[in-house]
Fold each of these.
Amino acid sequence: MVLLEKVEIHDELNPILWEGDKLKEEVQSRLMEIVEEFQEFVSIPIHIIDVYVLGSNAQYNYTEHSDLDLHLITNFVTSEMSEDIAEALYNYEKASFNGHYDIDIKGIPVELYVQDVKAMNASKGVYSLYRNEWITKPEKELEPPELDDDKIDLEYNELKDEVEIALASNKSSDVADMIDKIYLMRRESLAQDGEYGVGNQVFKKLRNNRYLDKLKDRMYELRSDELSLENLQRR
């Protein structure tokens, strides 16, 4: 069964999270705690410049399946590592954190990212958690755009087949590569076509059908096995 996430346009921001156009105080406070927990969790230092709330739950097109995207903004240049290495390490720490913690805000899953300050956000709504104000304030759309359902279904089914192959692998690196591919697809889709891009819609269908959860669970299962030493019987 394929769960489709239909485009919805609301007259107000998600009232679970927002009081008018400001984050509810209890929501902002809890998100700050999540950021602090991540800073303690990571094994490498991270200097956070700001934290952005974005995605569907920072716009008027949220659905019951929408998660809450929390982007930790840092500067890879000042990390005392090459930018490529910094990005790879922070991505690993982010994936590890998201895999170990199952956090939600009143039933809305929180997805945490680490983003370089030079990276651009294509989201039409970007809210600064540190400054408690909008960087980019969303505008209500008169009607949702028409999606290319056939193309979305085609790319979804092709990628789902690749996911099934990764899930059947006995190497954690194969599963990790698949997870990276899916998130990179979403990132490029958002940068090129925004929220309604095909890649982002495919990502949402994979997420809603729990393929991302299955991949993350499988990756940690395999990694645990790879790090374990079997108890061999003495001869």
Note: Residues 172-193 form the longest helix (22 residues).
Amino acid sequence: MIKISRNTILSIIALAAVVGFMVYAENTFNPYLLRILNLCAVYTIFAVTFNLVYGFTGQFSLGHAGFAAVGAYIGALLTMSPTQKQANFFLEPIVPFLANIELPFILAIIIGGLGAALVGSLVAWPALRLKGDYLAIATLGFSEIIRVLLVNMQPVTNGALGLKGIPEYTNLYWSWGLAAVCIFVCKRLVDSNYGHALKAIRDDEIVAEALGVRLSYHKMLAFFTSAFFIGTAGVLFANLISTIDPKVFLFSLAYQIVGITVMGGMGSLTGSVIGAFLYTIFLEFLRPIESPFNIGSIQVPGIPGMRMVIFSFLLLMVILFYRRGLMGNAEFNWDWVVEKVGSLRGLFGGRGKVGDGPAGKED
């Protein structure tokens, strides 16, 4: 007789509930709510992959906006119809080999991810020789180079005009399906021997190298994996908002990703998901303050950008009072949930082992 553990049963129930909610939301929610949920998934991928590079490997990279741009443009060009491309490239014709290409969305996602991974590897090869702030500045510079190339490669990217009329293929199934794959792959990688080597590099590169860890190989592995999933998120993003241009991928996007990850907790994939949800939903909740509104008899003028000011202040509060973020480096743990919810203890019998932190044992 096969014995199924309590945690497995809870995971299956939770997965079924999430899938059921996605199906219900996709068929019931209005486009505005659907866009918010899709953006939560996109930012989840951004934060999880940044956490892989910085939180688990200790390499402070700010090149994520550039890699997302590569994936977004590749995905857009591969999914747009020849008619849409012709309508966009009216100042200068598109290069012939891209003019008539139109691929299924799944192929565009894969190719977009591989393209971003290739660019990420080319950036990482020289940049990962640097450490700390120097690495951050170098990768930020490469990201800006990518953006400048997008502006000037008119026959390929349509320059500063960007691309419009991108098919809106992204839905909850694609976005959260890919987010689940990203979390699963990163979790398996972190828990494997490769993950232990990445954490050793994060803690002390000299000691890790003395223990036989190949620094360049493992750094490149983390960077390649991160860039691939960032590229796929870029494809989802382009096919969600249906129009992109180089200004969408300014360095401010990289700072937003860093803020989400720090808020959730460096070294916690669970924290990255929580941070992505809080960031996306909270910014939408604050959107009205950028328009004129009344407080009693006092009229307050709208101030563009005030949402980011308030979010930055709250992020500062999190850093001051939760220095390691909301989750630290702890992960979600069913044992902690069962311990807190007494009714579940009675349902399954026994109380299981409880982790050290608020969501399980930390690394």
Note: The first helix runs from residue 6 to 28.
Amino acid sequence: MRIDGEKIFTEDEIKNRFESKETKIFNKTQFENDLNTIRAMYSEKGYIFAQSKDAYDFDDEAGEVAINLNIEEGTVAYVNKIKIRGNYVTKDKVILRELKVVEGEAFDSNKIRKSQENLYNLGFFDGIVLDTEQVDIDKLNIVFEVKERKTGTISLGAGYSSVEGLVGYVQLAQNNLFGEGKVFSADVQVGNQKQSWQLGYKDPWLFDTPTSLDTSIWNTNKQQGYNNQGYELDSYGFSLGGGRRLTDEHKVYLTYQYEKDKYLNVTDALKPYITKPESQVSSITPMYVFDTRDDVFDPGRGIYQNLSMQLAGGILGGDSNYIKALWDGRVFVPSFWKFVLGFHIKVGNAWGYNWQHYGDSNVPLTEKFYCGGTDTVRGYEERGLGPAEGGNFTIVTNIEYKLRLIDRVLSLVTFYDSGNSWKSVKDVDWQNPYLYPSAGAGVRFTIPGTVMMIRLDWGYALDPGKRVNGGKIHFNIGNIF
């Protein structure tokens, strides 16, 4: 292959991006894809008018083809103006603050793609179409045409999940309050295993700065059979938190939470672990998030990392003095066609500490780690793995291979899960830490016009000692990771 006309990139840089290699069988379709890759390389540098002209010299006797590629780079295109259309509710500033392109800068296809992803991740739009208007030989207007979805809902209905059982609910939610991206929610749920009410408010751009404010207040009653917890729990509390977007990928948060728990109808097996019928937890949690996912609701590529450490008791008061650290990591890798390979790992550790003034060093049951079931290791009973009273240390891994049949609507998955929890990190046999395995398949359906994903999974426990005959069906709202 001979390449002429290149100035911005070297010949080797261009050839290294080609899948079509010398000595390989020539594939015209693959070569066309390679040319698109080269055009994308130039568009990232602002050369959106770059063209490539190819010529072929076939040698039938030798069975070879020589390719001559001539590149006409053209000139750099600059962004003249950015226009927003179709946003009848959402204010321009909500959209503009998510864009990475800037007026006067060179056109950059990477920044355009990231801008589209940021807008989708708001959850306000069903469609985002990019268009351009040429106003000069080297100047373009960029037009973002958005199609808004309904972000305000009033719902009255019933539902079912493997964790909560049958639930009736009334919900009032507005995820784009006043068209400024603020969130308000209020809901009441009444079911055979859980009754609750909750009020929440979030401002993701407080005073039009990349600082968030998040607050909520709630009351929840969970019956003894809820998620196989083994006691009735009545809780009420509130949280108040703030965050800061350092960059698109890096964010930090700090949250204060107060919760009062009342235990009733405790099973005999758990009575030794509940020394007080009522307890108070007062805690503060710093958190760091790294996120490069292309779609936070249904990722096709990217990395998500979450590091948090809950500090409870001590000078904050409450009945329990403990520290709870958690790492949640996820990786999404695009495969061929519409397949995506996803990896997830969660590692958590909690430990108590002595405080001379008040409180004890026991981690409350509500803050321990439970393993097995719908949101951890599918195919097993809820909380069926590890200590019945919960563990202070846990490891959970999930691998999913997903086929996105209809983007942002319907996907099929196969999965492999593994996990366990232990009373203490000291109880782990690090030469052979046993993680209960399972495998299965499932369906993901996102209700059109919303970001609500319904998840239906069938899991089969691969540990015969914990196996449920015929496997186990899991039904819930939202992705497992």
Note: The longest strand covers residues 250-264.
Amino acid sequence: MQFKSFKIGNYLIEKPIIQGGMGVGISWDQLAGSVSKEGGLGVISTVGTGYYQYPKYFDITKNGRPNPIECNSEEALIEIYKNARKICGDKPLAANIMFALSGYKESVLSACKAGTDIIISGAGLPINLPELTKDYPNVALIPIVSSARALKVICMKWKRKGKIPDAVIVEGPKSGGHQGFHSVEECLLDENQLEIIVPQVIEEAKKWGNFPIIAAGGIWDKTDIEYYIKIGCSAVQMGTRFVATHECDAPSFYKQAVIDCKEEDIFLGGSPVGFPSRKIKNKLTNAIEHDLTNNVKSNKDRLAPPINCVSNCVLPCEHGKGARKVGFCIADRLSDTILERKDTAMFFIGSNGYRVKNLLSVKELMNKLTYGE
């Protein structure tokens, strides 16, 4: 099959491959700019832009982290977009913005000011996204859903504001990071698998308009892409394979962790965001499991790092309640990854991540996905 270009709003995407928006610091300027340069859609994560690459935009606290209010820095995001544009020129770039963020409105407006062409939003139902972007009519909007029912709710709410999605991403439970289901058990149900929910979302989408359907979660190669295009999708979204590229913004030890992991190292567990998350077993996750199994409450008795909420970065966490329930602060653990604190870093990964064997350039990977392994 020869792949075709397609449009998201006013933007032509040359190849039907959208890179996953992975935070903190996994998909920023180098990765997103390189993917867009090669004809896919590069996606910049807006989470944690105050870390690592742009220290001039924040003050370091005693523990080596930005002050909470500066974790998602608008100035840093603008810089990230400028650097991505140096790589891909005027080709489309997207922002991934979690609806669960406590600073969701601010992140949306920052992405628009930074010059994003497209906003992708999940981890909840982004009901108010059209209203937040009303002053930026050229910004295309893509919700992420895991069911036809979720798309129906979004379309009903958006239609009242004179908007329908410019595309929709249908994410199944084999993706890396956060899933669109409320429990591990729901992720494992046959009826919630990607190949089942995609046709249902396609049928629901027909009731609202003609916009692209994008499949995500566990997609690995050209054969997988062809399958979803044949059943009615315009494109796919892929995250983990792009982690194992030279251009990925992740530190090298994250990339090596993906290359080294085995199938049995990948598991689904909890997250303060309120959805299950898929990650790699390591020293940190073993410590978290120990603390949960033994009902360890006190920071001084924990094997895992202490939980001290200072920013309420995601609303479902409720100032650390969610973190204590699942045994870790997601902001601290993901920031430790980008800050290369190896003993306390957390690695998100898709279900097929164990199949990664070596690093490629983005160009090499895009060619493999487009023309075959």
Note: The chain has two domains: 6-254+354-371, 262-344.
